[in-house]
Amino acid sequence: MTILQLFLLGIGLAMDATAVSICKGLKMKKVDYRYMVLIAGAFGIFQAIMPLAGYYLGSTFSSYITSIDHWIAFILLGVIGGKMIFEAFENEEDDSGISYDLKEVLLLAIATSIDALAVGITFSFLQVNIWIAIAIIGMTTFVCSVIGVFVGNRFGIRYKSKAEIVGGIILIAIGVKILVEHLGLF
């Protein structure tokens, strides 16, 4: 694969993480740069680790992983999206800022990077320099996630409660999309 092909693949893999980053940006009154780096860093690292893991797992375990990966992503994104919708309806008196929920960020990073595991498995069958591939995928995801936080923040300032509901629906929709695609329904 060429550098351009890897970059385009990285953008494709980063789209779920970007959508989730937009949702996280919605909750910020102003961009919290530490939290933004935490989000983008977690997404970038997991988008890089998963293809590496898939590369080394190769075809040996691919049938086990691909048989449940969509269910894992669906459940994680559904729960987190549901939580986001629920929080939009909670009493908004305590709007002092965002919570640094590392566990939630890590679950989102895992859920949005499961497809990258499958890509890594395919890398094991191709003539791909895995180190260059994961560097490009990780950096692309990091940059897309940073942009996503800024976009979400700009939109969320104006439409906070409604934007949180939309953000939760987007997370659930991403989970449903992953599930439907992997089940071959569309």
Task: Note down, in words, how this protein is organized.
The protein is mostly helical and 186 residues long. Helix content is 82%, strand content 0%. The chain is built from 6 helices and no strands. It has helices at 3-26, 33-57, 62-89, 102-123, 130-158, 160-183. The chain is globular and about 50 Å long. The two termini are 28 Å apart.
Structure summary:
With 186 residues, this protein is mainly α. It is built from six helices and no strands.
What percentage of amino acids are in beta strands? under 5%
Shape: globular
H and E order: HHHHHH
Overall residue-averaged pLDDT value: 82
- What ranges have pLDDT less than 50 throughout 5 or more consecutive residues? 93-97
Give the radius of gyration: 17 Å
DSSP strand tally: 0
Helix run count:
6
Topology diagram in text:
Blueprint: H1 3-26, H2 33-57, H3 62-89, H4 102-123, H5 130-158, H6 160-183
Helix pairs in contact: 1-2, 1-4, 1-5, 1-6, 2-4, 2-5, 3-4, 3-6, 5-6
